[in-house]
Amino acid sequence: MSNLTHAIIGLPGSGKTTFLAALWHLIDAGEVTTTLTLDNLIGDHQYLNDIVDAWRRCERVPRTSAASNISVAINVTDVSTGQKLTLNFSDLSGESFESQFATRSCLKSYVDAYEEEGGILLFITADRGEDGMTILDVDAILPDEPEAAEHVEETKEWAPDMVPAQVRLVDLLQFIQQKPFARRKRKLAVVISAWDVVPQPRPSPLEWLKRELPFLHQFLASNGESFEFKVYGISAQGGDVTGDKRQEMLQSIPSKRIICVEETTPTSDLTAPLVWLTKVD
């Protein structure tokens, strides 16, 4: 069978680095059964070891601007089919994606990556602020008769990061639908990171996406000729590493801390989105 290369998209803070740390530990340690097994790693071993060490100690996985220069590729095999695939993690900081949105341009190497057969992992985070607020939400919390302002705040110059994350993500996906990118239908796994912060009772990941990021969901649902998508809720750490349960988390088998939810049933197999991307229907 031919190799597949899956691309990774995600803005800064969307969980790509923590996912990579947990994935590397999962397939390297062999503590739980996974569908994908490790072949070899290409890239910065030291950086990978550093983030995995932090992940194992239940510490925040470091996210620095230096990660924009890190390129890691993991070659794995699907033991159920024998399919070989490559996971390319480049620009773990997400800075190039922000730059692409702001400058309306990207590197040729980025375009070339989408010439390969394979799907896309799109990272967003459930640990977010007001990005999902609509004008109706704002109107509900404003007073009926606003008081006269005592002073006028200084006008801020517009910046790309003022644009809601879901709008920037839709823009990144629209890039891929146009030349010079090869136009074809691609599988896209939406990874909602920090799933543990979603309050109970938790909806399915798909329902969360519909409720919290309706513009992104509507774009995916209405562009079936370009994307076949599935949504996953993932907690690569398994909980809040700064909270009261950190000591309890440290006592557990690291691989079993991981939470991966497709519909409503959680598992510890973080490779599930990758397996779905690889599966031929």
Write a concise keyword list for the protein shown above.
alpha/beta, Rossmann fold, single chain, 11 helices, nine-stranded mixed sheet, 281 residues
Would you kindly provide a written description of the structure presented here, covering whatever features stand out?
There is one protein chain. This protein has a single domain (4-131, 165-278), classed as Rossmann fold (3-Layer(aba) Sandwich), CATH 3.40.50.300. The chain has 11 helices and 9 strands. By secondary structure, it is α/β, with parallel strands linked by helices. The longest helix is centred in the first third of the chain and has 14 residues, at 16-29. The model has no long low-confidence stretch (mean pLDDT 82). The protein starts with a strand and ends with a helix. Strands 2-3-4-1-5-6-7-8-9 form a 9-stranded mixed β-sheet, with helices on both faces. It has helices spanning 16-29, 45-56, 95-103, 108-113, 135-141, 165-176, 205-212, 214-221, 246-251, 254-257, 272-278; strands spanning 4-10, 36-43, 71-78, 84-90, 120-125, 186-193, 227-235, 259-261, 266-267. α1 crosses α2 (45-56) and α7 (205-212) packs across α8. 33% of the residues lie in helices and 21% in strands.
